[in-house]
Amino acid sequence: MASRAAKNRAGKRTKQPYVGLLVFLAIVVGVLCAGGAGLWALGNEWLKDLPDYTDVDAYNTAQKTTVLASDESTVLAEFYVENREPVNWDEVNDYVKKGTIATEDERFYEHGGFDLWGIMRSVVVNLMGGQEGASTITQQFVRNTILLDEMNEISFKRKVREIYIAVKLEEQYTKDEILLMYLNTINYGNGAYGIQAAAQEYFSKDASDLSIVEAATLIGIPQSPTANNPLENPDTCEARRNVVLDRMRSNGVITQEEYDAAIATPLSDYLNPTQDDDSNNGIYLYPYFTSYVRQLLLEQYDQNEVFKGGLTVVTTLDLRVQEAAEAAAATKRESMSDEYDVAFTVIDPDDGYIKALIGGRDFQADQYNLATQAYRSPGSSFKTFTLVGALEEGVSPQTMVDCSSPANINGYELENYNGASYGTRTMASAFAISSNTGFVRLSEYIGADRVAETANRMGIETELPANQSLTLGTTEVTTKEMAQAYATIANGGTAREGQAIQKITDRNGKTIFEADTTGTKALEPEIAYAATQVMEGVLTNGTGTQAMPSCGQVAAGKTGTSENWRDSYFCGITPQYSVAIWVGSRTEAQMPESLTAASVFADFIDRVMEGQPHEEFPTAGQPTYRSDVYDANLHIGSGSYSYDGDDDDDDDSDNDGHYSSGRNDSDDDSAASGGTSHGTSGPSTGGTIGGGASGGISGGTGGTGGEIGGGASGGGGDVGGGDVGGGDDIGGGGGDDVSGGGGETATDPGGGGEASSAE
């Protein structure tokens, strides 16, 4: 360190008997003014727990904050702002040394660390409207190094401690040594600590080569490193530089001619900052996650503590889970152009720990975190909160709901995706096929305010409007919010905030933060279990079959697509993980309908479960369902109501239709069964969604097994077959979530699909 080099030089230490007396008198005056001898004892008490100031080198560099993975050994990042390169005495030119003294502490070589005359002069100057500080260079050094943890504390105690240590340092070190230690540690802004780092940062040269005007510019910065930053505030910086030049002239450091030449030189003429390509600032691994951790730290602690305080931060990131997420995201990106991206959050339902986070393609190119900062429409994945709210209101998964399309529901006109009309369905079936009309009816039945309250209770932090479109996911949220809300279902009903930090210790090893994983009971276990059963049907027979893992791990979830196909969501759960995945464009441009998030979930679960034991969801008894769930106007529940295929007129006197509660004979625990046939259908061998006696909607003759209707040849896609089966989520063919034969959008009612406004 520079101070060690300085200590080897000859130098005269300050031995002034009156200095100790001055400190004593200052304390006595303070004590008398404060009111008595009792505070004298307090003053002595303040000096008992002083840091070890005898080894100043230990304080010459602030300590970086280290960020670790959950294994507590893998370093993910190191946060610091002290770009520091200590130099020796002869590596700093005289303009810097003499100019610093002229500006900061004119009597530096005369006082013993504490300048009583300087204080009195400062009082006079400030009373006359000027500005002048009273701290000596030695005091400033103490404040910025030895008493760093007390830097922002404004108290008589801190001042007494600062003065005491400053006096002691003056007895231990020479004046030149103290000045060099100051120059090697002071904050010159923009992350540069020490005169050499500052010279390189702003002028791309060494401290020994600084000109008069360059030296004056740097000397002026420490008074207020942000306000006087030459890169951010050049006008303020130049004004402060001129003050320094004036003091250098008045103290004989420079001549009048040198002053005139320097004062006439614009800052822009000599500013030559170093180009720094390391924009990650100490982030080594998984920058979207570690930058999020940095954001959390800065929300909780002072900047100095985060970047200089020597914290050790143990995060929740699981390297194995993160690698699986990275691989799944990379695979998806290979199938789409660079215009589109993938983001997702993975949370452990049992403690709320964020195990993995994917925030974008390239942190260097775009540091905007799509997982935690991007608010996007979750589409029909928000219907889960309506489902849970309905279950809490006693609505059974087998309760019948009108899913016809188009519809006018209490003045709200909407339709299912592609205008598909599903007729009457069980609530479980309506959820699996993602009927917009059915779930707006359910939202109206329980109240949109109940949907909003349920979502917030489960973990959605965004303020939600209680409107009719809320259930369709028109309010934008983050993947983190969706993952933590779905985790409430996965763990049996306990809501926990998604947390990225497990523990923080300070530079002395003392624990200053530990994550609270207690959580809050948000759902009854029976409700969470019933919701899980319904959600499983989405993967087995609904819009999310592409999300079904091939590894055999039980999973559940819900697809979602925003209006005009700008966002595709899939929120999925297993007993081990709650995952919210978004696929889309950073510019919110419309994307091809084949780009969906469901397959990313399956890929991720297959990867992360490799070699891991499979688990089952928490079980519970069935909720108590009401037998009186019925609303003729909304077409919900058992009983008769009129239905003529057009919801524009809900005249109950027109008995063109009959609403009945059908049941499937199957014992399918997903409850995604039951329904009535609207249209002629031949015998069916097991459509599980809407598979009533005649096997669903718009089945062709001889249909043999499309989950909702068969194509002309039978075995169609999961929800509505194309002419050739084997399709993905809705419709046959090779599309992802909502597609017809050959990957195109389904166009007939049997082709299935979701809303034009949201999936």
Automatic annotation (TrEMBL):
This protein's UniProt keywords: Carboxypeptidase, Cell shape, Cell wall biogenesis/degradation, Glycosyltransferase, Hydrolase, Membrane, Multifunctional enzyme, Peptidoglycan synthesis, Protease, Transferase, Transmembrane, Transmembrane helix
Renumbered residue ranges of the record's region Disordered: 637-759
Pfam families: Transgly, Transpeptidase
GO MF: penicillin binding; peptidoglycan glycosyltransferase activity; serine-type D-Ala-D-Ala carboxypeptidase activity
Segments crossing the lipid bilayer: 21-42
Highest taxon of source: Bacteria
Composition-biased stretches (Low complexity): 671-683
A biological process term (GO) from this entry: regulation of cell shape
Residues in Glycosyl transferase family domain copies: 74-248
Acidic residues composition bias: residue spans: 644-654
Biased composition (Gly residues): 684-759
Start and end residues of each Penicillin-binding protein transpeptidase domain: 343-601
Catalytic activity field: [GlcNAc-(1->4)-Mur2Ac(oyl-L-Ala-gamma-D-Glu-L-Lys-D-Ala-D-Ala)](n)-di-trans,octa-cis-undecaprenyl diphosphate + beta-D-GlcNAc-(1->4)-Mur2Ac(oyl-L-Ala-gamma-D-Glu-L-Lys-D-Ala-D-Ala)-di-trans,octa-cis-undecaprenyl diphosphate = [GlcNAc-(1->4)-Mur2Ac(oyl-L-Ala-gamma-D-Glu-L-Lys-D-Ala-D-Ala)](n+1)-di-trans,octa-cis-undecaprenyl diphosphate + di-trans,octa-cis-undecaprenyl diphosphate + H(+); Preferential cleavage: (Ac)2-L-Lys-D-Ala-|-D-Ala. Also transpeptidation of peptidyl-alanyl moieties that are N-acyl substituents of D-alanine
CC annotations in GO: outer membrane-bounded periplasmic space
Family the UniProt entry places it in: In the N-terminal section; belongs to the glycosyltransferase 51 family.
Protein name per the record: PBP1A family penicillin-binding protein
Native species: Candidatus Aveggerthella stercoripullorum
